[in-house]
Amino acid sequence: MTSEEILFQKFENSSQEAVRLNLAISGYFQENTHDVIREKYEAYLRRRIRPTLEALIAADDLTNLQKLENSGWLSAALIETGLETAIRLKKTELFVWFLNLKAEKYGFSGRNFSL
User: Fold this and answer.
1) Does an H or E element contain 91, and which?
2) 3-class SS at 16?
3) Residues 8-15: contacts with CB within 8 Å, 24+ apart?
4) Cα separation of 86 and 54, whole Å?
């Protein structure tokens, strides 16, 4: 058995959601993950996108957050969740990244702060 298969077997057999989430995140973002296994991880993570987002923020994992964004996973509501989570966890770099992402994709509306 390869390490990829062992990781996937642990993912499939675990009954603890926190363990399954961490295994799915690490398996999904590995470069050498087989496409069929990656699709199963993706299906799991898409159903748990908020916990996935929070886990990546807690781990200060900007690289994988950028991969999620490039894959089109981050909606306006998830970007807001990311901002709130980054503030709560005191992750300044990620807060700034989410703020810039929000500005790029959606802008800010409702108030005019010009002098």
Assistant:
1) none
2) coil
3) 8/37, 8/40, 11/41, 11/44
4) 8
- Euclidean distance between CA atoms 71 and 115, whole angstroms: 38
pLDDT digit string (tens) for 103-112? Answer: 998 876 666 6
Query: In degrees, to the nearest 5, what angle opens at C-alpha 96 toward C-alphas 90 and 102?
Result: 120
Distances (CA, A) of 8 to 2, 19, 30, 93, 112: 10, 12, 12, 32, 51
Q: What is the pTM of this model?
A: 0.88
Ranges of H-type helices in the chain: 3-13, 17-29, 35-47, 49-58, 62-70, 76-88, 92-105
CB atoms within 10 A of CB 42: 15
Token pair for 33: 């993950």
